[in-house]
Amino acid sequence: MPDKIEIAEGDITTLHVDAVVNAANEALAPGGGVCGAIHRAAGPEFADACAKLGGCATGEAKVTDGFGLPARYVIHTVGPVWGGGERGEGMLLANCYRNALTLAAEHDLASVAFPAISTGIYGFPPDRAALIAVRTVRETLPDVPGIARVVFCCFGAESRDLHQAALAATAPRG
């Protein structure tokens, strides 16, 4: 079976996938980084759709239409703010990826693109976050067989390299 996971460097708002994942804030309001870029690219109706969802808890996921994006849907997930690693941040980050994939499967989506959740303003160490992201996706894919393609869309070469290293480190042996 070929690997369903790809690593790409670029702008997540331009990807032609069924869903892009928004590294959202709890209010699902326009913000900075990936969240701000998705809100700008999706257009003004997007913010209205987000507001109707009533927010999102850390580690959970919710879905809206993609509006002006090439992606049909946006899956919103709220990553943890890094506090030194002693407050369950790793588990919460893993939940973001797991819950987003589960939600994608529930909506019969075959392709999903993730940013590097929590590694911007939320301060999660990028190397640790990449390993958690790739490991969680690998562990979750067997439970969501309809998902044929997962893209880690990295904003910059450093993030791309960290995700490629995580992909190699978590590759099935044998």
Can you count the helices? 5
Instruction: Indicate the percent of residues in helices.
Output: 25-40%
- According to DSSP, the number of beta strands is 6
Radius of gyration: 15 Å
GO molecular function, one term: O-acetyl-ADP-ribose deacetylase activity
Domain Macro: 1-171
Pfam family, one: Macro
Protein name: RNase III inhibitor
Describe the structure.
The chain is 37% helix and 18% strand. The chain is α/β, with parallel strands linked by helices. It has a single domain, classed as Leucine Aminopeptidase, subunit E, domain 1 (3-Layer(aba) Sandwich). It has a 6-stranded mixed sheet, with helices on both faces. Helix 3 (89-106) packs across helix 4 (126-140) and helix 4 (126-140) packs across helix 5. The longest helix is centred in the middle third of the chain and has 18 residues, at 89-106. 47% of the residues are buried. The model has no long low-confidence stretch (mean pLDDT 95). GO terms for molecular function: O-acetyl-ADP-ribose deacetylase activity. Residues 1-171 form the Macro domain.
Secondary-structure blueprint:
Layout: E1 5-9, E2 19-24, H1 33-42, H2 44-51, E3 61-65, E4 73-78, H3 89-106, E5 111-114, H4 126-140, E6 149-154, H5 157-169
Parallel strand pairs: 1-6, 2-4, 2-5, 5-6
Antiparallel strand pairs: 3-4
Helix pairs in contact: 3-4, 4-5
